[in-house]
Amino acid sequence: LSLPSSMHLIQMDSVQRWMEDLKLMTDCECMCILQSKPISIEKDEQNELMLSSQYSTCDNLQLLLKRAWIISTELTRIAQKLEKNRWQRVHSMTVRINCHVRSMINEYNMFTRNSSEEMHQFEKLLMDKCSEFTAFTERCMQTEDEQILKSMKSCVNETLTTIAQYFGQLIELVLTHEAQNLLRQIELSDSVYVTESALSGLFSLTQEGAHLCRIIAKEGGVVTLFKICRQDCFRGLYPQTLRTLASICCVEEGIHQLEKVDGILCLADILTDNSHSEATHAEAAAVIAQITSPHLTFTQHLSNFLENMEEIVTALVKLCQEASSGEVFLLASAALANITFFDTMACEILLQLNAMKTLLAACSDKRLVDTPYSRDQVVTILANMSVLDQCASEIIQGNGIQLLMEMLFEKSSSGNSAEVAACERVQQKSAVTLARLSRDPEVAEAAVKLSCIPRLIKLCRSPTERNNSDSVLVACLAALRRLAVMNPEGLEDLDFQQLVKPRLVDSFLLCTNMEESFV
């Protein structure tokens, strides 16, 4: 069974999700009782499901997407019940799907305009197929002959697959239509208010997942948004426009479009123009961070980036220096961190700009660096810069070894999975940076004086200290071995025999198999 792409869902408590969906489910059950007869709204103007003019396009789309998510989920559940031959359950769920589909189409047609003939054709195909499916499952429910049911099952599966395909194609058409409408509004408007409203709707769509970002990119969304960024009359909308661009550029199509319209040059101009607000600079940094993300496999074609890299890096360092909040610093440092992965020349530029001093100073300012996420960006830059020989003296002068030692103690305060993962990255990268820098005797000596060796041993031997992270363990073993070479008397014999002398893989296996004593 081929189902449409899963819908993006806002993370929320399960009870809250149930309450949100309840009104849709309740409406559906009413429709089942009335056998899909329409409910009169003449005396029920306050009905929550009836979409009045007070609803914005965003609200309507949210309702549509919630309904679509319910249908998608129900289709999956029908397939599961069908596998178990629970025909009565299959039929009741089919009736419910039928009602949901009709409700979704009616709701959408109440607020949409200029819907295409193709869309109407798919609406009819889907409703007809749902009615046929309901009648078919009803016959199956009334049949007790196992052989007949077995032969009918393949037809039911085929019909279910067709419904899923029609449904997926209809949703694709609807979302494309809405993206086109919003982009057309932006293109044709010279009103800040109208443009802002359309931008808000477009940003909402980008938050529904990568698939919608691809649709927007294919419909020319990146081109349209950069047009705004080149018009002074829309300066107040630059932050919102850039935030939407950053979302779209999480997909390959978005980055391709960005390069076609010289987006890098436009971003460089914005970052280096001191007349722009800090919010505009921060959102431009967010776009840079997105398009240079090391997690993306399709950034290699950004040839224009290298041409503008020096001025972009210079502007980002300045933004870090002048940041008025932790959020601004995070966006600027994230962009710098990604750029150091993107090209090694960036590290040399950072060294020339004395960026190490700026970053180390920021780490002692709780107003700027107060989360593991920010420290993750800083230590990423330090780790990538530490391959340069000149980096060691800069680190020592800025009290960087002390900072790296503190980062080895990074712990999550909330227990949130994303924060825990960030803490692991901070520990790992600080150990990597120490290992790289400790080839310099002066750095190694400073690390030993600050008791880095006992902390590295603790991280190796105690799985809970490193949150059972293998990557932290490997980095700590590597750092420990580098420091042991520079200062062999700093280790006890047992630690040397188990953590330094054997092959790295043997020490790794020894540490991963350790049982902690809780006595």
UniProtKB/TrEMBL annotation:
Residues 67-519 form the Protein inscuteable homologue C-terminal domain. CDD domains: INSC_LBD. One of its GO terms (biological process) is regulation of asymmetric cell division. Residues 10-54 form the Protein inscuteable homologue LGN-binding domain. GO terms for cellular component: apical cortex. GO terms for molecular function: cytoskeletal anchor activity. PANTHER family: INSCUTEABLE, PROTEIN INSCUTEABLE HOMOLOG. This is INSC protein. It comes from Formicarius rufipectus.
